[in-house]
Every structure is written in structure tokens, then in C-alpha cells.
Automatic annotation (TrEMBL):
InterPro entries: AMP-bd_C (IPR025110), AMP-bd_C_sf (IPR045851), AMP-dep_synth/lig_dom (IPR000873), ANL_N_sf (IPR042099)
Keyword Ribonucleoprotein: no
Residues covered by the AMP-binding enzyme C-terminal domain: 482-554
One GO location term (cellular component): peroxisome
Top-level taxonomic group: Eukaryota
A Pfam family reported for this protein in Swiss-Prot or TrEMBL: AMP-binding
Protein keywords: Peroxisome
GO molecular function: CoA-ligase activity
Protein name: Uncharacterized protein LOC100909017
This protein's record includes keyword Transmembrane helix: no
Domain annotation AMP-dependent synthetase/ligase: ranges: 41-418
Record localization: Peroxisome
Length: 572
């Protein structure tokens, strides 16, 4: 592009297909997160810290500090000690975050899971599965591999906790319920101020101690536990602050639950920098735009951070007046189409571009950030302390403009999945199974499994997951192109296209969730007629299967990996 230049602080190594941001962001390598939180909260005093989206209940920073200290004292009295791992099975609430902060003040490791993670996967009603996927699901694997004696849960998790205890023979010493008046709320009320000086919170930890464990979304395999240390979280927050994602002027909507990496990082980073957050309660799990609009208008939210699907769902003309206070929007994940980005900017009347932030659970926070929404495709640059490389299937550097897998290296990128220890680098416990660490190279790079390309000016474009690309007739076809074709049919509600390995090559299958009302036979006939009358690559779709629902990852996203696994082991 005429006039384009390499951005400041960006270095491009064409020989290695490597883009680096060499600017240094200063952060204290000796502090721990609880110490930093306490210092911030003491300085913020009576400023509002957290608001419940529906009830309007507020916690000021001074109240938050007192409540967390009381709860830490109560947890300690119940037997929690530094270095112990606590399973967290709870949805968003003020009590959940207070419990998390209190556990960190003691020096515990919180393992963030979800009571909504499924135990089984649906199968298409047009085929009969030969063998169902067995196993008890993600949470039971966590308990089997990482022995935990304490649980923080809410009322929706009661039956699940009981079931998990039976399945894995777990012996929970204590279950703390966030919404049971006889549990955490009573602890907050009954702990007197005089008790707080007995132990002295937060306890002294090492910066390399594990703070919490978050799970990947299982797009390339089973969900894996990513350890986040005090140092890595503080470093990530410093870099995110430097690029303007957080700040004391932000009043953020926290819609992702605490078990999602975005939920825990946005909440904690905001509390660390003295920002104000509004917590979306669990009953808005499906993100009803009217409920979100009500929350944003009534609690003066000015910043939205979330995936493009979530933000796109808010763009309803009759709700526009509810979002007049929004001044900043950041979409996460892959870049939405350019028309949608322009629509977001116009809908929210933004003075600045919509930012696009790309990262993974293993990177804790964003790695690439872009605000060049007006010049497709999305062009992003690495944040400080990150390097990005693009390689082919033989792990060789690719030339500018050619697609390859994105690799990431950084100061605080995870180097392995959690081994069950309380400090990074310690030897794993004998009774903890090891996770597959093939995503991490011996020279410190993390293989994202995402497809992308770069140009000679240091701009990186993230295309999507590598499994979303199908090789057809010497062409590389993106599944989204085929999916857009099927979504044009009014009776198609959701679709995922997959390529299933067969003895004679790849079989391309469209897996469709239909809208109710259209007979299956009629819909299938329509779709096959449309395929037969279409040009390449649509005419390379071999079969169409109808599903009641698509198999999903831990975060409820449709999973191509599970679909391919099911269809490979199914009698057709």
C-alpha cells in the first residue's frame, strides 16, 4: 500500500517470518497480585468498584478490601492454606469474585471451571452413532488429575458437585456456596474486624507462584489447564494498560463468567487499575440484548470488551439510546467482517475505531491489537514483549502474503500446561497425570493452531483456525465461505462445514441445525438442489446432516473437532 511503513517499535525479520514489538513496558517483577490489589483498593477508598447488573448493589473499594480480608480470615479458619488448590464452580456474582480474591489473599490456587460444561455431546438425528464419546466430561478430568479438597460453588452447582464427588471419589472437606446464607454470606457477616489482624493478609507469596488455572476452549483437543502466575498476570495487565485497554476512566461491562479467561482477566485487571465494573448476572447467560441494554443504560457503562458475536447482537436500532454512554469498544478473537465493524462504530457513535484484540488462553491476554477497521483485511501489530512468527506445515518461515500457522513467544506466555504444582517449574505431583504439551516448542514458541499471514510492514492478519481450512482441488477453501452459502437459506439456523478423512480422501459435510417448521426432507432436498446447481467450491460439499444441536466446546462454541471425531466413527 502506497505510503505504508513499518510502525514504530516493530521489527520485521523476513528471513524468519518474525514480527516483534521491542518497546519495553516497565512492571515490578517482585510484587504479587494480592499486594497490588490491596495497594490499589486502599488508594481508591470510597470510589465504587463493583456493581451488580440487576440489583444495583454496589461495593466500594474500601468495602471490597474489608470483605475480602474477612472472607480470607474465615477461609483460613476453615482449613485453607497457602499453596492449596480450590475448585471454583460458580457463575458471575459479586460474592464469587470476593471469594476468588480472598483465596488469593491466602495464597491458594483457584482452578476455574464451569458447572455448565457438558458431559455428553449431541449426535445428528439423521445418522446413528456407532460409539458415543465416553468419559465424564471436563470437570471430572480436572478432579482426577488435580486433587482438590475445597470447592467454591453456587446454588446451580449443588447437584453437579455431588455427582462429581461420586464419579471421581473426591473427598471434599468443605464446599463454600456463594449464594447460600449459611455459607459465604454468613462468613462475611460473622467475621468481626478484630479477627483480621490475627494472620495478616495477603500472605507473602513468590511472583512465580500459580495464581489461578484457566482452561482452554478445546478447539484443538480436550480442554487443557493453563497456569497463570502472579508475575504473568501483573505483566499482562501492565501491557494492556499501556495500549489503553484498561484505565481508571473505564466503566466496563463484565459479561464473561469467571471460568472464562476473558471474565477473570477483565475483572481482575480492572480492579487492579482502579476501574469500575458492572457484573452481568447469570440469568443473562444467553445475552438478551434488551437485558444488556438495561444494564448499560442504568449503570453508565462506557466500555465494552467482548467477542464480535456478543457485540453484534446488541446492534438493534430500538436499543441505540441505551448505549449513548459507550465511548470504547474492543472485539476479541478473530476479526469480524469490515461491514460489521463499521456498523459497530456508527451504532455506538464512536470517535475512535473499534479495536480488535487477538489472544488465547495460553497468552493470558491480547497479543495482537488493531484499530484499522477501515482498511480490510484487519492488520494488527504485536503488543510490547511479544513476538509473532508465521510458519508452514514443515515449521519453515513463510514469505509475506502467504498463509501459515501463527506462533507466539512472549515474556508471560505459558510454557506448559498445569502440572498440579503451586509454583511454576516445580516437579509435578506423582498422582497428577501430565497433559500433552505439544503446543509448546522446545525453543519457547506457542503453536496457536490459528491460520494467518503478515506483510513486510509488520502487520499480521489472523484468518481463523487451521482446522477451518479445507484443501480442495489444490485450493485452500475456508469453511466460512461454504457456511455463508448455507446460511442464506431461511430454514438454516446454524451450520458448521467439516472435512472428514475417508479412505478415498476428504469428505466435505455440512452439519446443520434447522429452524423448526420446515420438514427435514424438504430442507435436505432444497439444500442438495442448491449444491448441485452451484459452482466450485460449494459443489464439492458431499453430504448434509441435520442436527438438533451442534457439539460444543467448554465455552459453548460449535466444535469442528468433535464433529469430525463423531462422523469418523459413525456408520453412514
Amino acid at each position: 500500500m502506497e505510503g505504508e511503513a513499518v510502525p514504530r517499535d516493530i521489527l520485521v525479520d523476513l528471513e524468519e517470518a518474525e514480527i516483534s514489538n521491542v518497546r519495553e513496558v516497565l512492571f515490578d517483577t517482585t510484587r504479587t497480585l494480592p499486594q497490588a490489589l490491596r495497594n490499589t483498593w486502599q488508594g481508591m477508598g470510597n470510589s465504587v468498584a463493583m456493581t451488580h447488573g440487576y440489583t444495583g448493589r454496589q461495593l466500594r473499594f474500601s468495602e471490597l478490601l474489608e470483605a475480602v480480608n474477612r472472607l480470607a480470615n474465615a477461609f483460613h479458619a476453615e482449613g485453607l492454606r497457602q499453596g492449596q488448590a480450590i475448585l471454583v464452580l460458580a457463575h458471575s456474582s459479586l460474592e464469587v469474585y470476593m471469594a476468588l480474591f480472598a483465596a488469593w489473599f491466602i495464597g491458594c490456587v483457584t482452578v476455574l471451571a464451569s458447572s455448565s460444561w457438558s458431559f455428553a455431546y449431541p449426535f445428528p438425528h439423521s445418522i446413528t452413532p456407532k460409539s458415543k464419546l465416553d468419559g465424564e466430561g471436563t470437570i471430572s478430568k480436572v478432579l482426577e488429575r488435580c486433587k482438590m479438597e475445597f470447592v467454591i460453588a453456587d446454588g446451580t452447582s449443588i447437584s453437579l458437585v455431588t455427582k462429581l464427588a461420586d464419579l471421581t471419589h473426591a473427598n471434599f472437606k468443605r464446599i463454600f456456596y456463594t449464594d447460600d446464607p449459611l455459607s459465604i454470606p454468613m462468613m462475611l457477616q460473622s467475621c468481626s474486624g478484630e479477627q483480621l489482624t490475627d494472620i495478616g493478609f495477603p500472605v507473602e507469596c513468590h511472583p512465580e507462584d500459580v495464581l489461578f488455572v484457566a482452561f482452554t476452549s478445546a478447539t484443538t483437543g480436550e480442554p487443557k489447564p493453563v497456569p497463570v502466575t502472579h508475575f504473568s498476570f501483573l505483566a499482562m495487565t501492565a501491557v494492556s494498560l499501556d495500549c489503553g485497554l484498561y484505565g481508571t476512566d473505564k466503566h466496563l461491562l463484565v459479561w464473561a463468567p469467571p471460568h472464562h479467561i476473558a471474565g477473570i482477566t477483565v475483572t481482575t485487571a480492572s480492579m487492579l487499575c482502579g476501574a469500575r465494573i458492572v457484573v452481568v448476572p447469570e440469568r443473562t447467560a444467553h445475552m438478551d440484548p434488551h437485558q444488556i441494554a438495561f444494564i448499560c443504560e442504568n449503570h453508565k457503562v462506557n466500555c465494552l470488551i467482548g467477542c464480535s458475536d456478543f457485540i453484534s447482537g446488541l446492534l438493534q436500532r430500538n436499543l441505540r439510546h441505551c448505549f449513548e454512554g459507550i465511548s470504547s469498544v474492543v472485539t476479541t478473537g478473530y476479526s469480524p467482517e469490515q461491514g460489521r465493524l463499521r456498523e459497530m462504530r456508527e451504532f455506538f457513535s464512536l470517535r475512535e475505531e473499534v479495536k480488535i484484540a487477538y489472544g488465547t488462553t495460553e497468552t493470558i491476554g491480547p497479543v495482537l491489537i488493531s484499530s484499522q477497521a477501515e482498511s480490510p483485511p484487519m492488520k494488527a501489530v504485536p503488543l510490547p514483549h511479544f513476538k509473532v512468527r508465521v510458519v508452514n506445515s514443515r515449521n519453515e518461515p513463510v514469505a509475506p502474503g502467504f498463509e501459515g500457522e501463527i506462533l507466539i513467544k512472549g515474556t508471560f506466555v505459558a510454557s506448559a500446561y498445569w502440572s498440579g504444582t503451586s509454583r511454576e517449574g516445580d516437579e509435578p505431583h506423582d498422582d497428577v497425570c501430565q497433559w500433552n504439551n505439544d503446543n509448546f516448542t522446545s525453543d519457547g514458541w506457542f503453536r496457536t493452531g490459528d491460520l494467518g499471514l503478515y506483510n513486510e510492514y509488520g502487520h499480521v492478519t489472523v484468518i481463523g483456525q487451521m482446522q477451518d481450512v479445507i484443501p480442495l482441488d489444490k485450493h485452500r477453501i475456508h469453511c466460512s465461505l461454504l457456511e455463508e452459502f448455507f446460511l442464506e437459506h431461511e430454514a438454516v439456523r446454524e451450520v458448521k462445514v467439516v472435512a472428514v478423512p475417508r479412505e478415498n480422501g476428504l469428505e466435505v459435510i455440512a452439519c446443520i441445525v434447522p429452524d423448526p417448521g420446515t420438514p427435514d426432507a424438504v430442507l435436505l432436498a432444497d439444500l442438495y438442489d442448491a449444491i448441485d446447481s452451484s459452482a466450485f467450491p460449494v459443489n464439492r460439499v458431499h453430504r448434509v446432516f441435520l442436527f438438533d444441536d451442534l457439539p460444543r466446546t467448554a465455552w459453548r462454541r460449535p466444535s469442528r473437532r468433535i464433529l469430525i471425531s463423531q462422523l469418523r466413527t459413525t456408520s453412514l
